[in-house]
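Methods — Computational structure assignment.
A single polypeptide chain was analysed. Its primary sequence is given first, followed by the predicted tertiary structure written as structure tokens.
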Amino acid sequence: MAGRRVALKAIDWLAFAERIPPNQRGMYNALKTRTDAISAKLASLPETPAALDWNYYRGAVAKAGMVDEFEKKFKALQIPMPVDTQTSAINAMETDANKSAMEYIEASKARVAEYEKELEKFHNMIPFDQMTVEDYNNTFPETKLDKVKHPYWPHKPIADL
């Protein structure tokens, strides 16, 4: 039947539905309903169109030779199938997107490892209420004031305040 005319790639609606945010659920349902309606209509159509009864038209049309001319032109008609020019470009874009996604995942894993190391530092440090100023400056070196370079209060350049 019309099975060969259906899309080359079937849509996994369950996997698609998992990625839909709640505020777009209505649009998703409308898309799925419309797609199902189109698919059902395509499935109901025959694989080949019904053959024309040229003898009926020969009897119904008064002008002689007109139906024979139409039949000859109809049989000579060849409708070319469109050439797929976009699949290779889409596949290349998909490959690039997968590559960049994998790079992002690897970079994210590195960031997660770095953040876990920093979190472990916070878990192992002395509680703030038990720290001295020296302990605090050793734990967070960016807070240490340089009294030699900036001998006057606030011991930081004014631009850094």
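Note: The chain has six helices and no strands.
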